């Protein structure tokens, strides 16, 4: 009995007429009887389309995943092999089916046709173009193979088929992992353009730092954010199908805790303050379980994943960058691995299943070992928030953020101090690697930076040679004691002449400014806010004010609060304060 139609099912084989027809019919009868005896005979006349219908009715997967599978079946499987009976399926049928998908995703009949820009009646113009065959993506073909394999395995369990005919077909290969995250320059441009809306910029920043999925960010509530300990809990996700949205478990059904850096904590604190101000303006109090990213004033509704995708697409399209929102997740993973974080930790932050197998397969081989050693951490590699037009950064304005920059700045100071005389060779890259505790490739980058500054001559196969520099071309490392000591001072050492009104430089009158790297410490009302290492800076109130404003902005503050901050200059590695700069709005 056919389990689908509930009718008697007969095995048939037709023998063409001829002198040997009777003998061939006897052979066919014996073959069919053997199939019945060995239970290898198909027990149904069902087609592929009928099997898929029964399969999807019982399939237990996420609604969005099921919708994707049904769309693949409706678009590609049913139109091509939907009417084929299960008994007629063979490896040759599937190989031909996959070959057709690789030929043309529209399943054209190889005739010249025109692709109209609309299906209703219209006058053709430049938007109506001749059809050009484009293959279906390899990853999509593999998804179709997964759908068919699952349906046919169910048919075997139901005993509709004695064996799975797709097992002997050549399965589509897994496409190689090609993550294409935005570059550091592109990430900086995206962040700079998004700061017009601080709430939107915080969402993009948090995606870069945590690598969270868009649905996880939509489901994030303030009760999941611990601003005191700097921890983010990811326990839910928002799914969307058309205009319908609902909360569900995460994709891999894992609950994870992600540590946040101080900059991210500062941004989320400011974002929460803005949310509370909006709620207060509406006469309500922001609930504890309010959504972090919400379109309503009281935080009662979450953002839609589709809204995030559409807004981000418009943003990058205006910037001329070809990327997607999901590639920010790739950016976070690749930068974490490049900064030396182990793959298992990266997998935990991103919520990858399989113990990090996905992370290892997709991301680990994409970043070279040299790049992994060349970075100090994800936060140091993220672009800073905008403080004006970006320009070429010279050695005197360089904020040291990477090991190769630190080594280059130290070598530059030695060259300008005369430790390495003009015409003398620099130490080899192996010696520099051992001296600064960096990789050989990182040492090469440091020498390349010295070449860009015009300090050394680098030739292939030879050691770098220090170039001769006139005193006029050598930027001063710091003002001399004569330049500072002769200026009128107050009892606190305030330099009054070179400083503009409402700004003051407070420094010890007996301290000699150093010749090495400096550490700038931004303080607010006595508490440290941030630290950064930089090249020696001249004692110039305008420059120091600019550095102070830059630090305030990067820490989430406002230039109007400049009177609450102070900038301390210390020699790198020392504890004594060499100079303190304060200013008023």
In short:
The longest helix has 20 residues, at 138-157.
Characterise the protein shown here.
With 585 residues, the protein is α+β, with helices and mostly antiparallel strands. It folds into 4 domains: 42-114 and 130-168, Tyrosine recombinase, N-terminal domain (DNA polymerase, domain 1), CATH 1.10.150.130; 184-373, hpI Integrase, Chain A; 399-466, Orthogonal Bundle (Arc Repressor Mutant, subunit A), CATH 1.10.10; 481-583, no CATH class. Helix content is 40%, strand content 11%. The chain contains 20 helices and 15 strands. The chain has helices at residues 21-37, 48-58, 63-81, 91-103, 138-157, 184-194, 198-210, 214-218, 262-281, 305-319, 327-338, 343-350, 357-362, 369-373, 378-381, 403-417, 429-436, 440-452, 481-485, 541-554, and strands spanning 114-115, 129-130, 225-226, 231-234, 237-241, 244-248, 256-259, 399-400, 456-457, 465-466, 503-506, 518-524, 527-534, 565-571, 577-583. α3 packs across α5 (138-157). It starts with 20 loop residues before the first helix and ends with a strand. Residues 368-377, 385-392, 471-503 and 505-513 have low confidence and may be disordered.
